[in-house]
Fold these 3 entries.
Entry 1:
Amino acid sequence: MKTLSVCDIRLHPSTVDTDFEKAMVEEVLPGAGDGYPAGGVFTRALYRRTGEDFPPGYRCLVYSDRPGDSGFFGMRKAIEPLGAHTAEPWHRSLRGSADEEAALEPVRNSATTGLIMITVHRSLRLIPEDFEAPLDAALLAEVRFRTRVNNSIAAFWTRDDTAVEGRIEYLVVVFGQYMTAPRLNTGVLQTISDTNGVIVGSDSFRHVGTVAGDPAGKA
């Protein structure tokens, strides 16, 4: 099963954002995973939080068939000298009805301009299938819906039964081609509410860069 690894990054106030992004895309992402075996899925991508926050925040994602670690595939030690603070990474197994490879394709596609990530909590006492099946249907409707401005093109979700005591934590991940700030067009949020899911976090990002291939530039 494929793993989604996530590391949040915040720049120091004195760090120039364009310099940081260039170094991440040209040096840090290609050099990730040194010492890991070649072959398999190993796609890493950088996204910048939308809005006018200062200093800006970023989210780095890795899609892999390898387990993640606290060093975030060797990238934390390379990121912090660039003038940034990295939070403790976290890791989730990919779930959802979408084919894993189909779900990952938008990550590799430079035309995918935006990302939405929604964190949902649901009681462990409730039946997971009563939430997961409607969520799959709502996400399928979202990626099939088309406008002239914002279009979601792929979605999946992750599940963790141990991250929060007494709760199942879901992470809903939606990729799209967004001309304005990333947003959902259909009833995904309503479906979450109707099935006793509680949204505890919602973040949107714009794509900065992606590297796909074997570790340490061996693609």
Entry 2:
Amino acid sequence: MTSATQDTGKQAFESFSQGLATQQWDAFLDMLTDDFSFWFPAGPFQGSNIGKAKAREFCQYVAACFPDGLSITLDGVTSNETTVVFELRSEGKFRGEIYKNRVAVFFDVRGDKICSYREYFGSDGKSN
């Protein structure tokens, strides 16, 4: 594990969490490489997605699904030379319905940017 990798990952996660809470995504999007890719497990962005423009579309989709924001409780962080993983609980209202989930978010780091993101979740959306 390198301190720089973990520092970059944590900075990106703070911007990501702020985006979830406030729908202000610019700080997070500014941390992405031009060839950024992400993998999401469900919905219209299920599977692999490539490019910052696609990431912006994803953030707009999240904002539409959670117009009042989504709160995050961080349960753990682990990292190696290239990847930082965040275990968290999320809570909010998904299109007006109570939403709770457990999530693992992976940020792959290149230099001082995030080049890849993967998210995995698995609760029933009502418990955490």
Entry 3:
Amino acid sequence: MDFLLKAVTPRKVALFIALLAALSLGRRYGHYLKAWYLARRYPPVGAAPLSGKDISAQIQNEESRRVVLRYRQVCALLAAAGKRGAKVDGLKAEADAALSLNTPAYRREALRILSRVQFSIPRKQ
């Protein structure tokens, strides 16, 4: 009994209760501390990534520019052939119609028409 009275002092009981309270609070609110630590230790790198809509819009813009560039090349070839005296009015109308198909659903067909028009342009002999 004498050992028990020496071992259990008011200070040790208070420390034991404080330890139990700390463990209880740590178990309940520990995830906040862990999240804070991880956010502090590993901050986000740079800006947020692009969303799917932004990436899709960039792809559509690039494909549209490709069709317009091909149209300009074909028009330059048509103009050169027209200066040589070839009849290119029908081919020019077909190229203009292909440019009007510059929408996501018909872009592949527009490129196909422009390729056919470019192939049909009379060459110099």
